[in-house]
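Holo prediction — fe (ii) ion.
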Amino acid sequence: MVKLVEKMNQQEKEELLEAITRDLKEILSENRYLHSISTMEKAKELAKEYGQEEQIAMLTALAHDIAKEMTNEEYFIYAKENNIQLDEFDKLDNIALHGKIGAHIAFKKYGFTKEMQDAILYHTIGREKMTLLDKIIYLADKTEARREGEKAEKLRKIIQEEGINQAILWNIDYHTIPNMIQSQRLIHPNFIYTRNYILEEIKK
Ligand SMILES: [Fe+2]
Ligand SMILES: [Fe+2]
Protein backbone atom coordinates (compact mmCIF):
# COMPACT_ATOMS: atom_id res chain seq x y z
CA MET A 1 0.00 0.00 0.00
CA VAL A 2 1.22 3.46 -0.86
CA LYS A 3 1.25 5.95 1.98
CA LEU A 4 -1.20 8.79 1.39
CA VAL A 5 0.30 12.25 1.13
CA GLU A 6 -2.25 13.62 3.60
CA LYS A 7 -0.78 11.28 6.26
CA MET A 8 2.83 12.28 5.56
CA ASN A 9 4.97 14.56 7.67
CA GLN A 10 7.35 17.10 6.17
CA GLN A 11 10.27 14.69 6.08
CA GLU A 12 8.22 12.08 4.23
CA LYS A 13 7.06 14.67 1.72
CA GLU A 14 10.70 15.63 1.15
CA GLU A 15 11.52 11.98 0.52
CA LEU A 16 8.59 11.68 -1.88
CA LEU A 17 9.87 14.69 -3.83
CA GLU A 18 13.18 12.88 -4.21
CA ALA A 19 11.53 9.59 -5.20
CA ILE A 20 9.37 11.26 -7.87
CA THR A 21 12.39 13.12 -9.20
CA ARG A 22 14.23 9.80 -9.59
CA ASP A 23 11.23 8.21 -11.33
CA LEU A 24 10.77 11.12 -13.74
CA LYS A 25 14.40 10.90 -14.76
CA GLU A 26 13.68 7.34 -15.88
CA ILE A 27 10.27 7.93 -17.45
CA LEU A 28 10.63 11.27 -19.23
CA SER A 29 12.88 12.74 -21.89
CA GLU A 30 15.62 15.06 -20.67
CA ASN A 31 13.69 18.13 -21.78
CA ARG A 32 10.45 17.23 -20.09
CA TYR A 33 12.29 16.14 -16.98
CA LEU A 34 13.93 19.56 -16.76
CA HIS A 35 10.55 21.22 -17.44
CA SER A 36 9.08 19.25 -14.52
CA ILE A 37 11.83 20.33 -12.14
CA SER A 38 11.51 23.90 -13.27
CA THR A 39 7.71 23.83 -12.90
CA MET A 40 8.23 22.60 -9.34
CA GLU A 41 10.47 25.56 -8.59
CA LYS A 42 8.00 28.03 -10.07
CA ALA A 43 5.13 26.43 -8.15
CA LYS A 44 7.13 26.82 -4.94
CA GLU A 45 7.56 30.51 -5.65
CA LEU A 46 3.86 31.04 -6.41
CA ALA A 47 2.83 28.96 -3.40
CA LYS A 48 4.92 31.17 -1.13
CA GLU A 49 3.43 34.30 -2.64
CA TYR A 50 -0.19 33.18 -2.56
CA GLY A 51 -0.23 31.19 0.68
CA GLN A 52 -0.40 27.60 -0.51
CA GLU A 53 1.47 24.82 1.31
CA GLU A 54 4.78 24.75 -0.57
CA GLN A 55 5.49 21.02 -0.45
CA ILE A 56 2.04 20.20 -1.79
CA ALA A 57 2.48 22.64 -4.67
CA MET A 58 5.97 21.28 -5.36
CA LEU A 59 4.91 17.63 -5.38
CA THR A 60 1.96 18.36 -7.65
CA ALA A 61 3.99 20.47 -10.06
CA LEU A 62 6.77 17.93 -10.19
CA ALA A 63 4.38 15.16 -11.24
CA HIS A 64 2.06 17.20 -13.46
CA ASP A 65 3.41 15.82 -16.77
CA ILE A 66 4.15 12.30 -15.60
CA ALA A 67 1.89 10.86 -18.32
CA LYS A 68 2.79 13.34 -21.05
CA GLU A 69 4.98 11.01 -23.05
CA MET A 70 2.55 8.11 -23.24
CA THR A 71 0.95 7.45 -26.62
CA ASN A 72 -2.78 7.80 -27.29
CA GLU A 73 -3.03 4.05 -27.39
CA GLU A 74 -1.35 3.77 -24.01
CA TYR A 75 -3.81 6.34 -22.58
CA PHE A 76 -6.77 4.30 -23.73
CA ILE A 77 -5.33 1.05 -22.43
CA TYR A 78 -4.46 2.63 -19.07
CA ALA A 79 -7.92 4.15 -18.79
CA LYS A 80 -9.57 0.84 -19.51
CA GLU A 81 -7.42 -1.11 -17.09
CA ASN A 82 -7.97 1.41 -14.31
CA ASN A 83 -11.63 2.17 -14.89
CA ILE A 84 -10.99 5.80 -15.73
CA GLN A 85 -14.02 7.42 -17.29
CA LEU A 86 -13.15 9.02 -20.62
CA ASP A 87 -15.71 11.40 -22.08
CA GLU A 88 -16.74 12.05 -25.67
CA PHE A 89 -14.21 14.85 -25.96
CA ASP A 90 -11.33 12.56 -24.97
CA LYS A 91 -12.17 10.29 -27.86
CA LEU A 92 -11.97 13.18 -30.34
CA ASP A 93 -9.02 15.16 -28.96
CA ASN A 94 -6.30 14.17 -26.50
CA ILE A 95 -5.77 17.61 -24.94
CA ALA A 96 -7.07 16.55 -21.51
CA LEU A 97 -5.74 13.01 -21.50
CA HIS A 98 -2.25 13.35 -20.07
CA GLY A 99 -3.73 15.26 -17.13
CA LYS A 100 -6.44 12.71 -16.57
CA ILE A 101 -4.12 9.70 -16.72
CA GLY A 102 -1.33 11.55 -14.87
CA ALA A 103 -3.63 12.35 -11.96
CA HIS A 104 -4.48 8.68 -11.60
CA ILE A 105 -0.86 7.58 -11.78
CA ALA A 106 0.04 10.15 -9.10
CA PHE A 107 -2.63 8.70 -6.82
CA LYS A 108 -1.74 5.09 -7.44
CA LYS A 109 2.03 5.49 -7.27
CA TYR A 110 2.43 8.33 -4.78
CA GLY A 111 -0.80 8.60 -2.79
CA PHE A 112 -1.62 12.13 -3.97
CA THR A 113 -4.67 13.75 -2.36
CA LYS A 114 -7.84 14.51 -4.33
CA GLU A 115 -6.86 18.18 -4.40
CA MET A 116 -3.45 17.34 -5.91
CA GLN A 117 -4.94 14.90 -8.40
CA ASP A 118 -7.40 17.56 -9.54
CA ALA A 119 -4.66 20.11 -10.08
CA ILE A 120 -2.90 17.62 -12.38
CA LEU A 121 -6.15 16.64 -14.06
CA TYR A 122 -6.98 20.25 -14.91
CA HIS A 123 -3.53 21.73 -15.51
CA THR A 124 -4.13 22.06 -19.26
CA ILE A 125 -7.85 22.77 -19.53
CA GLY A 126 -8.69 24.44 -16.22
CA ARG A 127 -12.15 24.07 -14.72
CA GLU A 128 -14.96 26.00 -13.18
CA LYS A 129 -14.11 26.88 -9.57
CA MET A 130 -10.37 26.39 -9.98
CA THR A 131 -8.69 26.08 -6.59
CA LEU A 132 -5.59 28.03 -5.65
CA LEU A 133 -3.53 24.87 -6.20
CA ASP A 134 -5.11 24.41 -9.67
CA LYS A 135 -4.15 27.96 -10.58
CA ILE A 136 -0.60 27.61 -9.30
CA ILE A 137 0.04 24.43 -11.28
CA TYR A 138 -1.66 25.81 -14.40
CA LEU A 139 0.54 28.91 -14.37
CA ALA A 140 3.77 27.36 -13.08
CA ASP A 141 3.61 25.01 -16.07
CA LYS A 142 3.43 27.95 -18.47
CA THR A 143 5.82 30.37 -16.79
CA GLU A 144 8.60 28.18 -15.39
CA ALA A 145 12.06 29.62 -16.01
CA ARG A 146 12.84 27.40 -18.98
CA ARG A 147 9.82 28.67 -20.92
CA GLU A 148 10.95 31.26 -23.39
CA GLY A 149 9.11 33.48 -25.81
CA GLU A 150 6.52 36.20 -25.76
CA LYS A 151 3.74 34.21 -24.20
CA ALA A 152 5.73 33.14 -21.14
CA GLU A 153 7.15 36.63 -20.69
CA LYS A 154 3.74 38.25 -20.95
CA LEU A 155 2.29 35.79 -18.45
CA ARG A 156 5.09 36.43 -15.96
CA LYS A 157 4.51 40.15 -16.29
CA ILE A 158 0.74 39.85 -15.77
CA ILE A 159 1.24 37.62 -12.72
CA GLN A 160 3.54 40.24 -11.22
CA GLU A 161 1.46 43.27 -12.06
CA GLU A 162 -2.12 42.03 -12.00
CA GLY A 163 -2.11 38.65 -10.32
CA ILE A 164 -2.84 35.05 -11.21
CA ASN A 165 -6.49 35.41 -12.23
CA GLN A 166 -5.69 37.98 -14.89
CA ALA A 167 -2.86 35.80 -16.15
CA ILE A 168 -5.18 32.80 -16.58
CA LEU A 169 -7.76 34.95 -18.35
CA TRP A 170 -5.13 36.35 -20.71
CA ASN A 171 -3.80 32.91 -21.49
CA ILE A 172 -7.22 31.59 -22.45
CA ASP A 173 -8.29 34.68 -24.42
CA TYR A 174 -5.08 35.51 -26.21
CA HIS A 175 -3.34 32.21 -26.45
CA THR A 176 -5.42 29.07 -26.03
CA ILE A 177 -8.61 29.96 -27.86
CA PRO A 178 -6.90 31.77 -30.78
CA ASN A 179 -4.56 28.77 -31.13
CA MET A 180 -7.41 26.30 -31.20
CA ILE A 181 -9.16 28.38 -33.84
CA GLN A 182 -6.05 28.79 -35.95
CA SER A 183 -5.25 25.11 -35.88
CA GLN A 184 -8.92 24.19 -36.43
CA ARG A 185 -8.84 22.18 -33.25
CA LEU A 186 -11.84 21.56 -31.01
CA ILE A 187 -12.21 23.96 -28.10
CA HIS A 188 -12.47 22.03 -24.86
CA PRO A 189 -15.55 23.26 -22.95
CA ASN A 190 -13.45 23.67 -19.80
CA PHE A 191 -11.65 26.60 -21.41
CA ILE A 192 -14.98 28.41 -21.50
CA TYR A 193 -15.98 27.33 -17.98
CA THR A 194 -12.61 28.45 -16.67
CA ARG A 195 -12.81 31.76 -18.47
CA ASN A 196 -16.29 32.55 -17.18
CA TYR A 197 -15.37 31.58 -13.66
CA ILE A 198 -12.17 33.62 -13.65
CA LEU A 199 -14.05 36.64 -14.99
CA GLU A 200 -16.41 36.40 -12.02
CA GLU A 201 -13.49 36.02 -9.63
CA ILE A 202 -11.90 39.16 -11.04
CA LYS A 203 -15.11 41.14 -10.59
CA LYS A 204 -15.39 40.21 -6.90
FE1 LIG B 1 1.04 19.12 -19.32
FE1 LIG C 1 3.90 20.83 -18.41
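READOUT: The pocket of fe (ii) ion (ligand 2) is lined by residues 35, 39, 64-65, 141 (CB under 6 Å).
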